[in-house]
Amino acid sequence: MPTVLVVDDSPVDRRLVGGLLGKAPNLEVDYAADGEDALGQMHDNLPNIVVTDLIMPNMDGLELVAAVVEKYPLIPVILITGKGSEEVAVEALKAGASSYVPKSALSSLLVDTVENVLAMAQEEQTQVRLMDCMTGCRFTLGTDLAIIPALISFLRHFIRQTGLCDETNGIRTCVALEEALNNALYHGNLEIDSDAREGNRAAYRALIEERRQSEPYCSRKIYVDVEVSREQGCFVIRDEGPGFNPDLLPDPTDPANLEKPSGRGLLLMKTFMDGVTFNDRGNQVTLIKRNGNPNA
Amino acid sequence: MSESKRFTIDSQGDTLIVSAARDVGTLAEDELREEWDELLERLDQYNTKHAIIDLTELDYFGSIMLYLMVRLWKRVSAGGGKLAICNVSKVGEEILKTANFDTLWPIVSSREEALAAVQE
Description:
- By secondary structure, chain A is α/β, with parallel strands linked by helices.
- Chain A has 9 helices and 10 strands.
- Chain A has helices at about 10-20, 35-45, 60-70, 85-95, 105-130, 145-160, 165-190, 200-215, 265-270, and strands spanning about 5, 30, 50-55, 75-80, 100, 135-140, 220-230, 230-240, 275-280, 285-290.
- In chain A, the strands form 2 sheets. Chain A has a 5-stranded parallel β-sheet with strand order 2-1-3-4-5, sandwiched between helices. In chain A, strands 6-7-8-10-9 form a 5-stranded antiparallel β-sheet, with helices on one face.
- In chain A, α3 (about 60-70) links the parallel β3 and β4.
- The longest helix of chain A is centred in the middle third of the chain and has 27 residues, at about 105-130.
- Chain A is elongated and about 75 Å long.
- By secondary structure, chain B is α/β, with parallel strands linked by helices.
- Chain B has 4 helices and 6 strands; from the N terminus they run βββαβαβαβα.
- Chain B has helices at about 30-40, 65-80, 90-100, 110-120, and strands at about 1-5, 5-10, 15-20, 50-55, 85, 105-110.
- Chain B has a 6-stranded mixed β-sheet, with helices on both faces.
- In chain B, β4, α2 (about 65-80) and β5 (about 85) form a beta-alpha-beta unit.
- In chain B, α1 (about 30-40) runs parallel beside α2 (about 65-80).
- The longest helix of chain B is centred in the middle third of the chain and has 16 residues, at about 65-80.
- Chains A and B meet through α6, α7, α8 and α9 of A and α1, α2 and α3 of B.
């Protein structure tokens, strides 16, 4: 049965809110006297949802919203607001509160609001548990340019969840993956040379758009295979372009090449990954990231 | 002060200050380049010699951002000015050093230090 933690310094109001929630057949109610008390109780026993008053001593409702969002991002918080505190309600929503209920409408809105927010939160919690079970994924990307940043954002979250990397190493891994994906899209499938960036901006953009719409470029795909465990991540990225010889790229750290537009992507891949290998054709790269401390 | 969608430009004395927004990382390569170029095109309205890139909001960036930095550096250098980078994240600093860009520009921890560095 889901547990609601009701937070209010007024015993009368606590009883009122608890009484309303207690009428719902499937809710269990616990109580805390202020934000600090609530966080202490949550440390020992996590509720499914928090319903909090706004004005309280020690830690008020807004501070509690911020603390819960930071420490327990999957636990929703509903704020009870008094008359004339609409601005605070907006502030609370911005800070991460799931909803708010005006004190004057408690009897008509509270139970429905709690049940609706709980249903949404449970779906999200289940999704997170499902993600915990995921060890790999596969993507087939077309020429949608906005997909790469979205995929990187997903992989950053995924890598972090698997325990392969801490946050910093997760960022390093994503830097390398983003370079590999951009390489596959722009240089691989669209066959756009780095030097094209040097020219006119409109011409560069027009070239990208033209190739995204015309054969053979527009039909080409990027295949991304991801296998991640706590010990190692293996990322294979293959495009359908003609391939390239990575040995022919200029050394971008050579002072003579510092101003040139090419070679830095591969350098970042090699710097932030433990292994970077290309197939013979040069259209597939395998990037390996090892966990330096898998038992941590 | 002037803004593109993801970059803010401001000036202090003879120094131009470019700040990148947090969501620069969500831009596709061509969009990023486009916004940067729009920003460069507006530089003429600022009568500045030096430039600072403030990366406070960015966790990281990639080779395209490095390339855009080079473009700004070339432009500033052509007028006899200097470029400095400030408020770089740990990974951002690793990226700049990997590219050997720490040999080109001072990388410092605050905007004040950057302003001092370009005046040296």
